[in-house]
Amino acid sequence: MKKVYTIGRYFRKKFGEDVYKVPLSIAGFTCPNIDGTVARGGCTFCLNESFSPNLSQKSSKKFYLNPQSPENPLLQKQLEQVRWQYNATSARLRGKYGVKKFLAYFQSFTNTYAPLPTLKALYEEALKQPGCVGLSIGTRSDSVTDEILDYLADLAQRHEVWVEYGIQSVFDETLERINRGHDSANVREWIAKTKARGLKVCGHVIFGLPEESDEMMMETVRKAIEWEIDSIKIHPLYVVKNTALAVDYLKGRFTPIEEERYIRLVVESIKMLPPSISVQRLTAGINDETLLAPEWCRCKHTQMRHIRAALKAAGYVW
Q1: First CA to last CA distance, the chain
Q2: Would you call 116 exposed, middle or buried from its count of C-beta atoms within 10 A (0-12, 13-18, 19+)?
Q3: Can you tell me the distance from the alpha carbon of 111 to that of 108, in angstroms, rounded to the nearest whole number?
Q4: Is residue 299, in this structure, part of any structural domain at all?
Q5: What is the pTM of this model?
Q6: Is 294 contained in some domain?
Q7: 173 in a domain, yes or no?
Q8: How far does CA 93 lie from the centroid of its chain?
Q9: What is the pLDDT of residues 70-87, one digit of tens each?
Q10: For residue 282, is it within any domain?
Q11: Is residue 303 a contact partner of residue 259, using CB atoms and an 8 Å limit?
């Protein structure tokens, strides 16, 4: 049996022990695909305020950053959020698993979409926290700059630094269909620039996007490999309420991917990966009242049990 090169195995090899991610969600961050910079409404599968009038009304007075924001009145609140979220989650992980080292994972929205002084303050605050050995920064390829990458490359001289890009699909017709706001050439360009600075890249891909064939999904994985990503996350597309995708689903214009098909494509993807590319995630889902479909995305534990069984049948151990 061949072991899947998971991100856990990567960390244990590099640090000699487990390293866990601590997810952080910081107030004031948004996305250029939501605020109108590149598009409006966000990706069709994304639950966001611009699509939900009720959410928008509740938050009409909220302040949101963009790279040109002249000031950041939320900075002290954001720094406090970094501290308490990091310390609460890391304490729980220490107690449950005995973990001592962590990556601060800036997860929600676009975490480079702010003025550089704000980014520096937040990233460096995270790196000050007990046991923090580095950063993982979730963002979009149209929301980074050379200046940001130069700064991250400097941090990477002393810390573990990852940039996580949403590739989703390499087909421009798909990206347009989901209202992504940029094309695949933009993703390729900024992954190359990120890699050129010695930074590690995790690429996110989605299986089950509207009108994509199996061959298209596998081509996205192949291109991501060609672009020399260091790690991969694979997600199924599921439908949540108050999204444009939900409208299409309820009107019969979108059919979610079936679990059997999804798992088969995941196994084929694992077979394609070279030994240098680690795997960070093979599925996703949500178990609350917002999920409309597919029902199999409700329980990630059940999904992973089925995926492990399929991998084992193909000669792999997760």
Answers
A1: 10
A2: middle
A3: 7
A4: no
A5: 0.94
A6: no
A7: yes
A8: 21
A9: 999 999 999 999 999 999
A10: no
A11: yes
